[in-house]
Design goal:
alpha+beta, Arc Repressor Mutant, subunit A, three-stranded antiparallel beta sheet, 3 helices, globular
């Protein structure tokens, strides 16, 4: 199976049946879905928290970059969203 196409104009949202939330017992954010749970690191949380189905990947990158002193995060965001889409965690349009 080929990797999902993700570019600056793609719009991402958390997939239906999945929920991003903070889990006190884990002391981190997690992505919950019917088959289980994924423990997220800080960068994954930063990205997924902005996947609202309205913002483009380019807008998400700009927002994250602004919070981290202008760091170029584009490749990291796109790579993560490809991985997330391949696991069914996000939907891309």
């Amino acid at each position: 199976m080929s990797a999902p196409t993700v570019d600056a104009s793609s719009v991402a949202c958390i997939a239906r049946g999945h929920r991003l939330q903070y889990e006190p017992a884990q002391d981190c954010h997690v992505l919950l879905y019917p088959e289980g749970m994924v423990t997220l690191n800080a960068p994954a949380t930063e990205i997924l928290s902005r996947c609202d189905g309205q913002r483009t990947v380019g807008e998400i990158c700009s927002l994250i970059s602004a919070e981290f002193d202008g760091a170029d995060v584009t490749d990291d965001v796109i790579d993560f969203l490809k991985l997330a889409a391949s696991h069914g965690w996000v939907r891309l349009t």
